[in-house]
């Protein structure tokens, strides 16, 4: 694996790590809050006890329904969600600056790109999003960040295995 290859290319060359394996890794961790990648997913409750964000539980539940999905796929889904939210925000800002009324804005968004999520989603979701895009996409970004951190942690296990594995016969 070339060290100067783009990150996603290097990650795609790792052996696939099923989300089920990640879930087993997480279940086996005595103190996941001590893992530097997972630490941002934890906080403190009112009593000062360690607490996991409710978003983490929702993402883990979602991932647990498809344990055969790879961490790489989960990573790409997370990056795609963050990218779509960023593009939506930029497009909406420009269209609102043009003075488009909400219904016209929604129609323009649907026509611009199916990857922005409006063409495929329920019309009610699109209207809810348009009423409060910051809240809607903030929740999406939070879910994507949890998915991203979990996927990276799972993929790091595959990389760690390759780094500490004894060299194959004939290699030194």
Task: List the defining traits of the structure above.
2 strands; globular; 7 helices; mainly alpha; two-stranded antiparallel sheet; 3% strand; 172 residues; single chain
Folded structure, characterized:
The protein is mainly alpha-helical and 172 residues long. It has one domain (13-162). Helix content is 62%, strand content 3%. A two-stranded antiparallel ribbon has the order 1-2. A hairpin with a 5-residue loop joins strand 1 (42-44) and strand 2 (50-52). Helix 4 (71-97) packs antiparallel against helix 7 and helix 6 (123-131) crosses helix 7. The longest helix is centred in the last third of the chain and has 32 residues, at 133-164.
Instruction: State the end-to-end CA separation.
Output: 16 Å
Radius of gyration: 20 Å
Q: What is the strand arrangement across the widest sheet?
A: 1-2
* Proportion in β-strands: under 5%
Tertiary shape = globular
Helix content estimate: 55-70%
How many structural domains? 1
């Amino acid at each position: 694996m070339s060290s100067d290859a783009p990150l996603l290319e290097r990650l795609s060359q790792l052996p696939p790590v099923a989300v089920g394996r990640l879930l087993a890794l997480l279940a086996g961790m005595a103190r996941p809050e001590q893992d530097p990648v997972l630490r941002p997913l934890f906080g403190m409750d009112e009593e000062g006890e360690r607490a996991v964000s409710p978003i983490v539980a929702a993402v883990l539940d979602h991932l647990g329904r498809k344990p055969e999905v790879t961490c790489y796929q989960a990573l790409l889904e997370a990056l795609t969600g963050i990218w779509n939210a960023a593009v939506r925000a930029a497009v909406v800002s420009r269209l609102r600056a043009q003075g488009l009324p909400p219904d016209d804005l929604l129609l323009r968004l649907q026509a611009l790109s199916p990857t922005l999520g409006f063409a495929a989603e329920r019309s009610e979701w699109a209207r809810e999003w348009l009423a409060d895009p910051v809240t809607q996409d903030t929740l999406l970004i939070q879910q994507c960040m949890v998915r991203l951190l979990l996927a990276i942690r799972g993929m790091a296990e595959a990389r760690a295995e390759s780094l500490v594995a004894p060299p194959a016969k004939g290699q030194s």
